[in-house]
């Protein structure tokens, strides 16, 4: 009985995680070093492909659901749908105008800076 209690009282010893082999990079050829780096990269990014597939599936589901919602909205509440469509159209035109003015302003600024630096030299 004393032996059984002694075995129960002994705490399990945690083992240290296995260490990767320490390879000297000076002994490896360039091709072996490249292969080792590629292997490490593949281990780090394992499962990354499935994440992209999940994102694409979510995107496609959201597109389908949004189309269904828009069609139902147009059929059931035509007047508010038209008002919402006009608001979205106006918003897109405003954003496009701001974007184009920003590009034009950036172009003018770059031409001005270029002329300033050419006149200095």
From TrEMBL:
InterPro entries: RNF121/RNF175. Residues 1-25 are annotated as: Disordered. The chain crosses the membrane at residues 51-71. It is a multi-pass membrane protein. Keywords: Membrane, Metal-binding, Transmembrane, Transmembrane helix. GO terms for cellular component: membrane. GO terms for molecular function: metal ion binding. This is Ring finger protein 175.
């Amino acid at each position: 009985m004393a032996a059984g209690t002694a075995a129960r009282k002994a705490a399990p010893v945690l083992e240290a995680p296995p260490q990767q082999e320490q390879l000297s990079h000076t002994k490896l050829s360039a091709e072996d070093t490249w292969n080792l780096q590629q292997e490490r990269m593949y281990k780090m990014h394992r499962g990354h492909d499935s994440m992209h597939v999940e994102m694409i599936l979510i995107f496609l589901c959201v597109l389908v659901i949004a189309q269904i919602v828009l069609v139902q909205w147009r059929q059931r509440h035509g007047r508010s749908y038209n008002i919402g469509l006009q608001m979205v159209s106006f918003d897109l035109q405003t954003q496009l105008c701001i974007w184009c003015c920003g590009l034009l302003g950036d172009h003018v600024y770059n031409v001005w800076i270029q002329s300033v630096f050419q006149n200095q030299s």
